User: What shape does this take?
Amino acid sequence: MLGPSRPLPRVGAPARITHFGGTSESGVVAAIHNGGRRLRVCILTGTGGSEGESYEFVLNPASARFVSAGGAYGPRLELGDLS
Assistant: This one.
């Protein structure tokens, strides 16, 4: 039996937010909505605490990747073991 093709989101999971141009920020999944198809991710400070700034991402059904809820040209999200 096959498992999921991508890491399933869970609150507290590490995340990497990648911006256009290649810069990235570390974050943590703060909330899951719509059966795991919409996520809110909070940015982490250098000490690992939540900074309060957050991004909303939605699952793109065509690519199975999380993209910015604000449009096609926003940041992308990576989930899973990012060490």
